[in-house]
Amino acid sequence: MHSNSTPHDAADLIELYYQKGFTDGFPVVPPSRDSVSAMLSAASLEQDQVIGEIATRNVVISADKVALNAVMAGCMPEYMPVVVSAVRGICHPDFNYHGMATSTGGAALAILVNGAIAERIGINSGENLFGPGFRANMTIGRALRLLMMNSLNTRPGGLDRSTIGTPAKISFCFAENEQSSPWEPFHVERGFGPDDSTTTVFACQDIIQVYNQLARTPEPFLEGMADAMANLGSMNITSQQNLIVVLSGEHRRLVAEAGWSKQQVKRYLFEHARRSIAELKKVKRLPGEPEPGDETTYRHVVSQPEDIVVVSGGGAVGTFSACLLSWGGSRSATSMVTTRI
What we know:
It is built from 12 helices and 11 strands. It is of the alpha+beta class.
């Protein structure tokens, strides 16, 4: 894949990579020996150094494979340590790469970045959090997807068996807005130090925006969030191993000004993100017909409040927040993994 080319040659190489199936549908940056070496140097890696292994695929991921795909994705060398950290995350056995990557459910690989590196290299944590316009967000996420396709053979129509998929499968990387958060950052909550930087990989099934402009106390807003978390059409209505709630500026201030702790938010969402057995049976998410007592017997979206991840992110203005629903119906299916950068 290495080349040292003129601009004219680069255009030919881009077309060649399309023909070879090396792209995600967008043009890639043709890698050269110098650009790959710069990626490796930025992460202090040798080209044959092992980054991780996907045992279920019998695949070892070496540093040069990561560097090649990072170049093709359009990453700058300073992004490489973040990419490497995320690769180590998806190689962790708890993440269960094979399941999330090949399921008909079509989960996206979400990468949450915490710590000082996010601001230093320009990973967006604010306005347009999940949208375009930020090179670091788009290319770091894309580097992982290209690696999944080119080194792990996770391609549409092949090992990637998504029924409908999602645009988030192209790239999904964002940072927590730690400066505006009233609470400790997520990576500190996970046991890392405040001065650490981390990536957290998460098998994301859906992104649901939650709107509430009129709420003046946390409860009405959180009721709406809980309802979105427990929507009857979600893949895993009662068995998610984790779920991410992203609170944007106005909703974040609403909760903080009421004096609520992050744990209070989690407990409230846990109690209200539920459906009765009767509701689940009526829409055939559980077998059988409703029976006496089913109307007052509930199933929760997650097994405990701690399974709900609450982070700050998004713009300071606008009454929109979001919940990120997970793929996989049990802890044996997949768990989010946090790795130090």
